[in-house]
């Protein structure tokens, strides 16, 4: 089997991330199901884009996959603004539980994707009413099984050799746990150090259907980043 490289990237800082970090508890009330990225997030994404450009021999992506959530697709469009790689949106790599809220289900519509992100192809499953059609939050087991299906699809893909995926903290963490713990189910509420920071990247190599982790949650593009040799 030909060697394949897959890089998992967490989106840049979102509006919800900013509210969570605020000492003012009232900001929690401002949380939205599908937030965009902040000004700080834009800078993070731009820096990661520059880093990939400066190291394109190491990160020669031929496919860019983005979650359809606003914070992911906004990050992806900035990070890979100058990339000539094929770009697509998968509605299978969204964050755990999904965006559903009893008061708001503000998913991007198909026509909005085409207008704002025309360089990204869309699967037929993304409809005009929004990409998330369920009226309930995804269960823990459903998220785990979705991550496992995504991983199997990536491993068995025969058309691309170097894939980047812009996704989310918990979803990426689940994929990493599957790789490390060989498909054993681990509840994502368990205490774990596998919590990737904004715009961090984790790279693993697939060879003969075995996964070898090359980089784990690193952020070499950000200032004051600690890199242990």
UniProtKB/TrEMBL annotation:
Which Pfam families does its entry note?
A: His_Phos_1
Q: Which GO terms describe its cellular component?
A: cytoplasm
What organism is recorded for this protein?
A: Stentor coeruleus
| Span of the signal peptide | none
- Keyword Transmembrane assigned to the entry: answer is yes
Task: Tell me where on the tree of life, at the top rank, the source sits.
Answer: Eukaryota
- Keyword field: Membrane, Transmembrane, Transmembrane helix
Name this protein carries in UniProt: Histidine phosphatase family protein
SMART domains for the chain:
PGAM
Transmembrane ranges, per UniProt, are 163-181
């Amino acid at each position: 089997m030909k060697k394949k490289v897959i890089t998992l990237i967490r989106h840049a800082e979102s509006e919800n991330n900013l509210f969570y970090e605020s000492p003012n508890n009232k900001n929690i009330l401002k949380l939205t199901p599908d937030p965009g990225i902040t000004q700080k997030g834009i800078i993070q994404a731009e820096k990661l884009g520059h880093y990939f450009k400066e190291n394109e021999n190491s990160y020669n992506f031929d496919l860019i996959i983005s979650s359809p959530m606003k914070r992911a697709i906004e990050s992806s469009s900035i990070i890979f603004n100058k990339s000539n790689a094929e770009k697509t949106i998968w509605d299978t790599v969204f964050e755990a539980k999904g965006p559903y809220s009893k008061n708001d289900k503000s998913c991007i519509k198909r026509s909005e994707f085409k207008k704002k992100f025309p360089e990204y192809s869309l699967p037929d499953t993304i409809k005009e009413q929004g990409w998330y059609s369920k009226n309930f939050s995804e269960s823990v087991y459903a998220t785990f099984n979705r991550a496992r299906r995504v991983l199997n699809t990536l491993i068995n893909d025969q058309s691309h050799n170097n894939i980047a995926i812009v996704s989310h903290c918990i979803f990426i963490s689940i994929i990493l746990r599957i790789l490390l713990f060989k498909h054993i189910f681990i509840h994502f509420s368990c205490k774990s150090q596998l919590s990737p920071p904004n715009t961090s990247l984790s790279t693993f190599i697939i060879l003969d259907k075995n996964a070898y982790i090359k980089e784990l949650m690193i952020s070499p593009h950000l200032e004051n980043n600690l890199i242990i040799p």
